[in-house]
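To the wet lab folks,

You asked to see what we're planning to order before we commit. Fair enough. Below is the target structure as tokens, and below that is the sequence we designed to fit it. If anything looks off to you, flag it before the synthesis order goes out.
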């Protein structure tokens, strides 16, 4: 969800050269979280104008700019960014829980094999696993963007490194 919210931000306020995504969500009249938030939280005049602009077949560049100005005025960017950070933080907390479960659960191939916070008899350090989770769940797009292909690469690296750590246990 954090990744999707970040994608919503980039689809409106992103710089294509930096993010690899053209900021075209407003032109395509996508009903993303920033737009939904603005409709729900705008004053009557801004809400009416936003709905009027979104109902147009082909808004002009000036009208598209006006949509973004309404979103900014209402605080839609900040709200969406805050929600993306919240979901990212929840995902990172879950990642730490997963590493702990990998160590604690008797049915885990890494049961009692992870050194949690550098403590324990395990042969696998928590830090590499946690670092891979951090890369996998981090939403650095909040400060500059990350292409979807990069996210897929991070996921592949995570699972390769995860299985390398499991192999350490069985060698």
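Sequence we intend to order:
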């Amino acid at each position: 969800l954090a990744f999707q919210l970040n994608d919503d931000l980039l689809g409106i306020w992103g710089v294509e050269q930096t993010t690899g995504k053209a900021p075209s969500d407003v032109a395509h009249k996508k009903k993303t979280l920033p737009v939904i938030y603005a409709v729900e939280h705008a004053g009557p005049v801004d809400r009416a104008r936003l709905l009027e602009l979104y109902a147009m077949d082909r808004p002009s560049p000036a009208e598209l700019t006006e949509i973004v100005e309404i979103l900014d005025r209402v605080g839609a960017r900040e709200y969406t960014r805050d929600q993306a950070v919240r979901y990212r933080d929840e995902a990172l907390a879950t990642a730490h829980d997963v590493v702990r479960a990998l160590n604690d659960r008797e049915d885990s191939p890494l049961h009692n094999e992870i050194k949690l916070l550098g403590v324990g008899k395990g042969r696998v350090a928590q830090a590499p696993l946690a670092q891979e989770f951090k890369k996998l769940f981090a939403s650095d797009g909040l400060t500059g963007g990350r292409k979807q292909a990069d996210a897929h690469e991070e996921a592949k690296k995570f699972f390769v490194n995860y299985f390398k750590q499991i192999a350490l246990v069985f060698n």
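Structural context that might help your review: The chain has eight helices and two strands. The beta strands are 114-115, 124-125.

Thanks,
Computational group
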